[in-house]
Amino acid sequence: MSLTLKLLILLLLVLRSHHVDSGSVVKFLPGFEGPLPFELETGYIGLGEEEEVQLFYYFIKSEKNPQEDPLLIWLTGGPGCSSLFALLFENGPLALKFEVYNGSLPSLVSTSYSWTKMANIIFLDQPVGGGFSYSKTPLANKVSDTGEVKIIHEFLQKWLSKHPEFFSNPFYVAGDSYSGMIVPPLVQEISKGNYLCCKPLINLQGYILGNPITDIESERNYYIPYANGMALISDELYESMKRICKENYENVDSRNTECLKLTEIYHKCTDKLNIYHILLPDCDMTSPDCFLYKYLLLSKWANDERVREVLLVNKGSIGEWRRCNYDIIPYNYDIKSTVPYHKNNSINGFRSLIYSGDHDMVVPFMATQAWIRSLNYSIIDDWRPWMVNDQIAGYTRTYANKMTFATVKGGGHTAEYKPNETFIMFQRWISGQPL
């Protein structure tokens, strides 16, 4: 056999082992010392007739038993926030080291709370314009909720076709914040596809949502009762607002001047709060004393050319990487409420875990409890504390539709505020144990 032929065969074997058609194995990351202690694959899946949409993903294999452990897809909210945020701040095996930026590349460290300890996870950048995902051509139609549901379903079918070893793994859809508008209809879409049209079949078992936006208009009406319950406004102001605004705080009639005056007082009491976690200061992320400073470090890391090269981000595909890109092409918010999808998913018997950080004011836990109650399922395990190391970590309740609701005590809008407790909650739920 000639040397040239030997080299050609060797090259083909290397390419095959690295899944070049869908993604490539990453063994080292800039900022992390030594080889990665887990299996990471990154890449794009092309979608649409001409594969003009290129969705970027990070895939991390379970550190326990990847052949049998559940497979999750994680969708970060926004719409337009990168899944790298979840990977490095919420539930991934790496985190950014909190240190003052000095011009050098921020460091990465291992975490103890990664959901990949017992699950395979695809962290997906979506929609186009979020993270490293992009379109080769200007999109003819606006990006929309319903459009994203179909695109992500197509992504999953293509990804699984290129990773057939995961066909039989139990599959879950997960996410937080605005993903509350995408995950329930996506679960329904996958379920329908399994019956009607689509191969490969996806072994769908359920879904997980943290502080999910579900019905924006009704949820905003819970800001005032939440503010009262957390002692942010007086009982007298709350009672007056209830009576005079007729418990409709979002669409106040301009003729109701008394309600408008009370609303002004409410805003004076709450406008300077950090609504993502009301106990934390509302400050600029450029201050090293601020909780949000790590977002600056993330931006420095993700925009480093060495990082992009190692992650195999296509050169020239996007400009500056942003944690949340709210300037994506006009977005059509065409799903107004996902309660009907939750109902349908319950009828179809899918498990669900819905959790709320109890110091989040963006989606108050009271609003989440209200739509869960509206499903009208009986309670099979009533309100009780769930414990971590003999301490109360939150409260939980389970319903007859296989839906578990849990609060995370001291948590905010995303799992980053209480990652250890959220990890333990996930670990128990995914393995079928009571919280």
TrEMBL record:
<protein>
    <recommendedName>
        <fullName>Serine carboxypeptidase-like 13</fullName>
    </recommendedName>
</protein>
<dbReference type="GO" id="GO:0016752">
    <property type="term" value="F:sinapoyltransferase activity"/>
</dbReference>
<keyword id="KW-0732">Signal</keyword>
<dbReference type="InterPro" id="IPR001563">
    <property type="entry name" value="Peptidase_S10"/>
</dbReference>
<dbReference type="Pfam" id="PF00450">
    <property type="entry name" value="Peptidase_S10"/>
</dbReference>
<comment type="similarity">
    <text>Belongs to the peptidase S10 family.</text>
</comment>
<keyword id="KW-0964">Secreted</keyword>
<dbReference type="InterPro" id="IPR029058">
    <property type="entry name" value="AB_hydrolase_fold"/>
</dbReference>
<dbReference type="GO" id="GO:0006508">
    <property type="term" value="P:proteolysis"/>
</dbReference>
<dbReference type="GO" id="GO:0004185">
    <property type="term" value="F:serine-type carboxypeptidase activity"/>
</dbReference>
<keyword id="KW-1015">Disulfide bond</keyword>
<keyword id="KW-0325">Glycoprotein</keyword>
<feature type="signal peptide">
    <location>
        <begin position="1"/>
        <end position="22"/>
    </location>
</feature>
<dbReference type="GO" id="GO:0019748">
    <property type="term" value="P:secondary metabolic process"/>
</dbReference>
